[in-house]
Amino acid sequence: MTWEAVADVDQLEEGEPLRVELGGVPVCVVLLSDDEAVAVHDTCSHQQQSLAEGMVTEEDTIICPAHSSTFDLRTGESVGVPEVPTIPVFACRIADGAVHVDVADRRNDAADPAG
Ligand code: FES
């Protein structure tokens, strides 16, 4: 288990996705509130678009910019239409004023979206 700091909380806007790469894995990090951040695989399971280019909603979902698949940012599950496979969710925490992600610690059993 290896936490990696990806950004200071002060540098992030709530609901503004940030794309980072950790150990070769593209990750989409989103600050949902002062005390909650989430991290999902930054690859849409439909046709591999970067989700960090998408839009976060008030329901804490992210809408893919390509064809509007929508994913729950806490579970990685597809919600709405078109329904597509679940995306991986990674362990994410806020500590010492920074957002940390552990890509080795997956919070669901979703397969990596084909790249
Ligand atoms: S690539 Fe994301 S919805 Fe098509």
Annotation keywords:
115 residues, mainly beta, Rieske Iron-sulfur Protein, six-stranded antiparallel beta sheet, four-stranded antiparallel beta sheet, 10 strands, 0% helix, globular, binds FE2/S2 (inorganic) cluster, 2Fe-2S, Rieske (2Fe-2S) protein, iron
Describe the SSE topology.
Blueprint: E1 4-8, E2 18-22, E3 25-33, E4 36-41, E5 55-56, E6 61-63, E7 70-72, E8 78-79, E9 89-95, E10 98-106
Antiparallel strand pairs: 1-10, 2-3, 3-4, 4-9, 5-6, 6-7, 7-8, 9-10
The structure holds FE2/S2 (inorganic) cluster.
FE2/S2 (inorganic) cluster binds at residues 44, 46-47, 49, 64, 66-67, 69.
Describe the 3D structure.
With 115 residues, the chain is mainly beta. A hairpin with a 4-residue loop joins β5 (55-56) and β6. It has no helices and ten strands. It has a single domain (4-106), classed as Rieske Iron-sulfur Protein, CATH 2.102.10.10. It has a six-stranded antiparallel sheet with strand order 1-10-9-4-3-2, with no helix packed on it. The chain has a four-stranded antiparallel sheet with strand order 5-6-7-8, with no helix packed on it. FE2/S2 (inorganic) cluster (FES) binds at residues 44, 46-47, 49, 64, 66-67, 69.
